[in-house]
Write a structure and sequence with these properties.
20 strands, Histidine kinase, 43% helix, 20 helices, Beta-Lactamase, PAS-like_dom_sf, phosphorelay sensor kinase activity
Length: 583
């Protein structure tokens, strides 16, 4: 809007009126119908920093209204002249002072009778607005704090009726705030805790501040443990009730109960454990020992407490004992074996698990669990000895469970079958070895074992490389006390060489029998024709020819005699073989 020439309104002619307008504490100006400023008093100059000479004649909305309020103030200015009821007489707006800062003001406007001028007053409420905003922010911050914390903030009147309670109540009990305000707090307290809480309430009203634990009931009847801390609330020196904080301690209570049960369980375990449980101070003196010490070492707990644990070590001078002492001071020790002295003088082997306990600055005690492994150690030594023997016997030894799954396979079995122990442990024996000979299958052996509990016989199995192996086998079932089969043990010896030798001897005997039969047949078939030939030679007239025939017959007889001698030798060999059970 273009600026027009200044049009200064005439100042009030009445000296009294003029004195009032110029000296009032309210900023006042007169605005023409077209929006030009006709007059501004001294308070306006003072409040907003403008010189009147700079304002008079200028349009009001060109420089004074804040951007956010300009259009609204222009609209009110025109409405007031065409429809006064549509424009408010008083409203809040923002003006810019001479420095450009926005100022909050209450604007009051009135039309001058008989003209289109407006008398406008401005009351600066910037400080009030700032105070209100600060208060709003403070209340919002407080509300956010109160509504956001887990604790329940509450106030009650002297009669126990709830006058305020924070929204945290809804998370705790599932009751809405609107349902609870105005109700007596006793309605939400566990009946068993109400008498004690009522007395604490009365003591707090009397001025005694004390925390109090009790149980509250949720909407669905669930119990929550809470603790309250309250103080009396005064207004104008008059007691109006209590203000307090309610904290949910259900999880703490549950943790305390879990701890109590854990301690009870620990106490029971400690008292009934077969292992020795012991604690000692930084000087190695026993501060606690479980009853198991009586069974393991022969001492009662009362005899042991107060003594030094090293007093019970069988060979305290040994280097490993000194190492144990150092390790116990520096950190945890697991599975350490040491020989202790029984009350009767016997040696007892304990397996120790030790962990340090900080007792005081620069000093650590320890707690330990000792398990008697004397019998276990003795059994392990026997088992190790048995395992040594098993690996050094010449016979193959195989153990299985009741389903013929291999559990042991000694070195001789490795040599006999070709498989290493780690290749066969856990595999089925029936699938691993098999036989093509009727009656020599593992299934046949299994049937005999199940029926009679043992088996003895020669079996033909296959080596890993596919070659047949003949084995003289003895197998027995392993049974438990009730008679049930728990597994099988098989002992086998390689008789492949013997079987091969027997096969050779058998073939030789058969050949001898065949030779003897052939000798006998051949001798019978030759002797008779020779006799006929010899008789004919005797009847011949040609002596020379007859003599030649007789010489041939003599030579043939000599050969027949050799056949007879071979038959006799073969018979002698046969009889020898029979006598020596080689046939």
């Amino acid at each position: 809007m273009a600026q027009q020439q200044p049009h200064e309104a005439p100042p009030p002619s009445d000296p009294l009126y003029q004195a009032i307008v110029e000296n009032t504490g309210t900023a006042i100006m007169i605005v023409e119908g077209d929006g030009r400023i006709a007059y501004a008093n001294a308070e306006f100059e003072k409040s907003f920093g403008y010189a009147r000479s700079d304002l008079v004649g200028t349009f009001f909305w060109d420089r004074l209204p804040a951007e956010v309020d300009r259009e609204r103030m222009i609209r009110y200015h025109h409405l007031r002249r065409v429809k006064p009821s549509a424009a408010p007489r008083t409203y809040e707006a923002s003006l810019r002072d001479a420095a450009g800062a926005e100022r909050n003001v209450v604007v009051t406007v009135a039309l001058v009778a008989g003209s289109d001028r407006s008398v406008v007053s401005f009351m600066d409420i910037t400080k009030k607005k700032r105070a209100e905003e600060a208060l709003r922010l403070s209340e919002e911050k407080y509300r956010t704090l109160v509504e956001g914390i887990n604790e329940v903030i509450f106030t009650v009147d002297p009669h126990g009726r709830i006058t305020y309670i924070s929204p945290a109540l809804e998370r705790l009990t599932d009751y809405r705030v609107s349902e609870v305000v105005g109700e007596p707090f006793s309605r939400y307290v566990h009946p068993d805790d109400l008498p004690g809480l009522q007395k604490s309430f009365e003591r707090t009203l009397a001025g005694l501040q004390e925390p109090y634990e009790f149980r509250v009931l949720t909407r669905d009847g669930t119990v929550h443990y809470v603790i309250t801390s309250s103080r009396f609330l005064m207004e104008n020196d008059r007691l109006v009730g209590l203000i307090g904080v309610l904290t949910d301690i259900t999880e703490r209570k549950q943790a305390e109960e879990a701890l109590r049960q854990s301690e009870e369980m620990y106490r029971t375990i400690t008292q009934r454990s077969f292992d020795i449980i012991v604690t000692a101070d930084c000087e190695g003196r026993i501060t606690y020992v479980s009853p198991a010490v009586k069974r393991v070492l022969g001492y009662t707990p009362e005899e042991a407490v107060g003594t030094r644990w090293m007093d019970y070590v069988l060979h305290p001078e040994q280097p490993q004992v000194q190492v144990l002492r150092r390790m116990a001071r520096e950190g945890a020790v697991e599975g350490y074996q040491i020989e202790m002295r029984h009350k009767n003088g016997d040696a007892v082997t304990l397996e120790l698990n030790i962990s340090p306990i900080p007792v005081s600055k620069g000093c650590s005690g320890f707690q330990a669990i000792g398990r008697d492994i004397t019998d276990r150690k003795r059994i392990r030594e026997k088992l190790a000895y048995h395992a040594y023997l098993l690996d050094h016997v010449s016979d193959a030894v195989i153990a299985t469970d009741e389903r013929f799954m291999i559990t042991a396979w000694n070195r001789a079995a490795e040599d006999l079958y070709g498989w290493k122990a780690d290749q066969v442990i856990g595999r089925s024996l029936l699938e691993l070895i098999h036989s093509d000979l009727p009656g020599a299958e593992p299934a046949t052996m299994l049937q005999t074992l199940e029926k009679e509990g043992s088996y003895s016989g020669e079996l033909m199995h296959y080596h890993e490389d596919g070659q047949p192996v003949y084995i003289d086998t003895n197998a027995s079932a392993l049974t438990e006390t009730g008679g049930g089969v728990t597994g099988y043990i098989l002992v086998g010896r390689d008789v492949t060489g013997r079987i091969a030798a027997e096969s050779v001897r058998k073939r030789a005997f058969e050949q001898i029998e065949q030779n003897m039969e052939q000798f006998a047949i051949l001798g019978d078939h030759v002797r008779h024709p020779l006799q006929v030939i010899m008789a004919r030679a005797d009847l011949m007239d040609d002596e020379k020819t007859a003599a030649s025939i007789r010489e041939q017959v003599r030579r043939i007889n000599a050969l027949v005699k050799q056949l007879d001698e071979g038959w006799v030798e073969s018979r002698a060999i046969r009889e020898f073989l029979r006598r020596t059970d080689l046939a």
